[in-house]
Every structure is written in structure tokens, then in C-alpha cells.
Design a protein that fits this description.
The protein is mainly α. It contains 22 helices and 2 strands. The termini are far apart.
């Protein structure tokens, strides 16, 4: 791979916008941040669905933070690339813009209720059964697994490239450089394997509906079937933010106290030869001193948690940059199959944070109840929308004479238009695949509150 080709600023459709002070990749960021899918993230769960406390992160807050950290990683890497004459001056600004955009949009395809929502969609298709899907989808393995292994990352690519209709069916019409870096996983659904030695192939990266686009993105940017180098930076930013910030939210919600967390980190650090927790805790203390000789004794858990988050990110970011530099040649050759944080000095520390998240933060009874409620909501809405999608006319005309027609009328006009366009272009007999995608498009486009309210209206008024 080479950076001139990776930083491909062309689009599927040539932009009709007049050129201004922005680089094309900066335009991508602006298109994304003004888009409806990004706005919807403010009412989608990061960890805690339907959270009443405004100080707790939503998916939007999380995405903005990932974007900021990804930009910081890209600045460090970009400067190093310029200093070592691996790229020309000015190209670092393009890398920074791509990383910031991909951090912002990385979770757009997630359904309501976080990862529990993805599980609910997969469960719905698996209950329909592979034999039934195999018959309906003419034995096409990828299309079958697109549904049974439904993945929010693949939905993100579909959303930004097709579903956000403006003037045509190219979605936000982002540059090839940005689209390439946004592809976190590179395997088709029927090739993905959670135990694959290449982390980039552990989950589905795209649906069959976008495979032609993926081929063109790879041809235009020269990545082949390997990850874009910027993808590693965005993935690291996501891992850093959720590993640290989810614990900070747990402190804010009084699920775990600062003293408990500190004791757990000190204990785990005894087994870490790099003593990352000690570095983080020392920096946290220095932050809280704020120029004083001693840390005040009356600081709240919230303040302690915020200082911990600041210190942890400050330590983890340089370690991720170092790992990128150390693996640079393999990354550019497309032969690096790992994750930067797992291959850095901070690997044990990050593993500890994620373990604390799983054992203490994500499994509270209130969260589990809300996730179970979300499963029921998504299952019922999938049933309802499938009744409408299964009978929907491919000419776009909606008839409300029967219940299937009434359900079809509730489907988004934009998504119906996308369905009609692409189902009409597909091989005869494959339109049922597009009908299923219409249902997942509809559900994934909902916020937590909207899904809950609609379900309540339809089920019990």
C-alpha cells in the first residue's frame, strides 16, 4: 500500500459542491456531522439504554470522543510520517481528517439498545432458521450469513453509502479514502470466523448488497483485502475510549466506587511487568494536585473518575502510536493481523479495564432488564415490519387495504425507495434478500426512545 493511493479523494459520484478552504476529507467530516444518522446517536445507548442521567454517555458522546482520540492518534502518526519522509507535507492533515470522520461514524449502523440490539436481530433471523433462509435466498451463502450474523459495522457501510438519501442512491457520497478506512472488518459474512488469526476477519465487514462497492473501494485505494492503515488507529481510539470511559460512567452511576477501582487496578498491576496502572495513577494524582503540593482530601468519586479517565487516555494514546510505528512495515504490506493495543505495553492494563467492565459495569440488574426489554421490542418490531416488507410492491406503491399493507406504510419512505431501486436491479428471485434488509434498515434507524414508544403504541397503547 502507498499513501498517495490510500488518500484517494475521489467519490463514487463527483461532488457538485464548489471548492472551498476544506480538503475533500474534511468535507466528509462535515457531511457526517450534519447527517441525520449522527443526530440519532444522541438517543442510542452506549452502555446504559434509556439512561435518564445526562452526564452518562450516549452513543453520540462516545462517537465524538472516539473521533477526538482518533484525530489525536492520527496527528502523532502523521507528524512521524512527515518527519521520516514517508509522506509529503500536507498529507498528514488528510490522515487526521479521515481518522476523525471514521471515529464519528463508526457506530452509525448499530440498532437500538446497543450490542443487545444486534444480538436480538441475529436471534430473529436464526429463529427463522437456516433451511428457510437457504430456500428463500436461493442458497446464497453470503446473503444467508449477512442475516444470521448481522453486524452493525457492515450496516454502517450500508448506511453511509446507500441509505442516507440526498440526491441519489450514493448515501453521503464519501471519498474512497474515508470509506476504505471506515471498513473495520474485511471479510464477507460467510467467510468471517470469530477465531480467525487475523482480527480483521473475525466479524463480517460488509453485506452482499455492498460487495461491488467494497471491490471498487479496494481497487481505488490499493488495499486489496487488507485493512487500511488508518483503520488501526480508529480501532485503537474506540478501544481506548470504551475501556476507560465506560468505567468512568460506572463511577458516575455509583455502580463502582473510586476506592474499589483503585484497589482492583493496584492488585492487577502486580502481574503487569510494564506497571501501566502505576503510571496512570501517578498521572491522575498529578492532575488532581493542580499545582498544589497535595491532592485535596474531599474530592468526590466523580472528580476522581474524570481525572482517571484523563490520565488513562494520556498514557494509552502514546503506547498505541508506538505500536503503530513498530508494526508499520507489516501494516503497509497488509500482513499485520493484530490490534495495536494488544501488541503494546498497555495490553495487560486494557485487558484489566475490560474485565472490570464486564464483571462490574455491564451486568447490573437494571441494565440487564433494559436489554431484555430491548430484545422484546426489536423482536416484535421485526415481526411487524416483516409482515409489511414481505408483501411490499417493488414499484413503491403502498396499499393499506390489509394489515400487511398498513405495516408496509409504516416503513420509512426513504428506505422503501432504496429497496425498490436495488431490488429492481438485482437478479430475479433475490428480492426477498432486499426485503429482509429493508426490515433491518428500518429497525437500525430507530433510536432507543422511538423504538420503545412505537412498541408501546402498537402493543398496548
Amino acid at each position: 500500500m502507498n499513501w498517495k493511493q490510500l488518500l484517494n479523494a475521489e467519490r463514487v459520484r463527483t461532488s457538485s459542491m464548489v471548492k472551498d478552504h476544506r480538503a475533500q476529507f474534511e468535507r466528509d467530516y462535515d457531511r457526517a456531522i450534519f447527517s441525520t444518522p449522527v443526530k440519532r446517536l444522541q438517543d442510542k445507548a452506549q452502555v446504559f439504554p434509556l439512561e435518564p442521567n445526562d452526564a452518562i454517555r450516549t452513543r453520540l458522546t462516545h462517537s465524538l470522543e472516539v473521533s477526538a482520540v482518533a484525530r489525536g492518534l492520527a496527528i502523532s502518526v502523521g507528524n512521524w510520517l512527515v518527519e521520516t519522509k514517508r509522506i509529503e507535507m500536507g498529507m498528514e492533515r488528510q490522515i487526521e481528517a479521515i481518522a476523525a470522520t471514521c471515529g464519528l461514524i463508526h457506530d452509525l449502523g448499530n440498532p437500538p439498545f446497543g450490542h443487545a440490539g444486534e444480538d436480538a436481530i441475529r436471534e430473529w433471523f436464526n429463529k427463522r432458521g437456516e433451511p428457510r433462509l437457504r430456500e428463500e435466498l436461493k442458497g446464497d451463502d453470503q446473503r444467508i450469513q449477512d442475516l444470521m450474523k448481522f453486524e452493525g459495522n457492515a450496516q454502517t457501510l450500508r448506511l453511509v453509502s446507500k441509505l442516507q438519501i440526498l440526491a441519489d442512491f450514493n448515501g453521503l457520497n464519501l471519498t474512497f479514502g474515508t470509506l476504505s478506512a471506515a471498513c473495520k472488518y474485511v471479510a464477507a459474512s460467510h467467510e468471517a470466523d470469530k477465531d480467525h488469526h487475523d482480527h480483521a476477519r473475525s466479524k463480517p465487514g460488509y453485506f452482499s448488497s455492498e460487495k461491488d462497492l467494497v471491490k471498487r473501494i479496494r481497487d481505488e485505494t490499493g488495499t486489496g483485502d487488507a485493512r487500511n492503515p488508518i483503520t488501526f488507529l480508529v480501532e485503537s481510539a474506540d478501544d481506548i475510549v470504551y475501556a476507560v470511559a465506560d468505567i468512568e460512567d460506572g463511577i458516575k452511576k455509583e455502580i463502582i466506587s473510586w476506592s474499589e477501582l483503585e484497589n482492583m487496578l493496584v492488585e492487577a498491576d502486580k502481574k503487569d511487568p510494564n506497571k501501566i496502572a502505576a503510571r496512570v495513577l501517578a498521572l491522575k494524582e498529578n492532575i488532581l494536585k493542580a499545582g498544589r503540593e497535595l491532592v485535596p482530601t474531599n474530592l468526590s468519586n466523580d472528580v476522581q473518575g474524570s481525572a482517571f479517565r484523563t490520565a488513562a487516555i494520556a498514557v494509552l494514546v502514546p503506547d498505541a502510536v508506538t505500536a503503530f510505528k513498530e508494526n508499520y512495515n507489516e501494516i503497509m504490506a497488509g500482513t499485520y493481523h493484530g490490534e495495536l493495543l494488544k501488541d503494546s505495553d498497555c495490553a495487560a492494563f486494557v485487558k484489566t479495564l475490560k474485565l472490570i467492565g464486564r464483571s462490574r459495569i455491564y451486568c447490573t440488574s437494571s441494565t440487564l432488564k433494559l436489554e431484555l426489554m430491548g430484545r422484546e421490542i426489536i423482536r416484535d418490531l421485526m415481526d411487524l415490519y416483516w409482515e409489511g416488507a414481505e408483501e411490499l410492491s417493488t414499484n413503491g406503491i403502498v396499499q393499506t387495504k390489509d394489515f400487511a399493507g398498513r405495516a408496509g406504510a409504516l416503513l420509512s419512505p426513504n428506505y422503501r425507495e432504496v429497496f425498490c431501486h436495488f431490488a429492481g436491479m438485482d437478479t430475479v428471485g433475490f428480492d426477498k434478500y432486499h426485503r429482509y434488509l429493508l426490515v433491518t434498515d428500518q429497525v437500525c434507524g430507530m433510536t432507543d426512545t422511538y423504538a420503545k414508544r412505537l412498541h408501546s403504541e402498537l402493543k398496548n397503547g
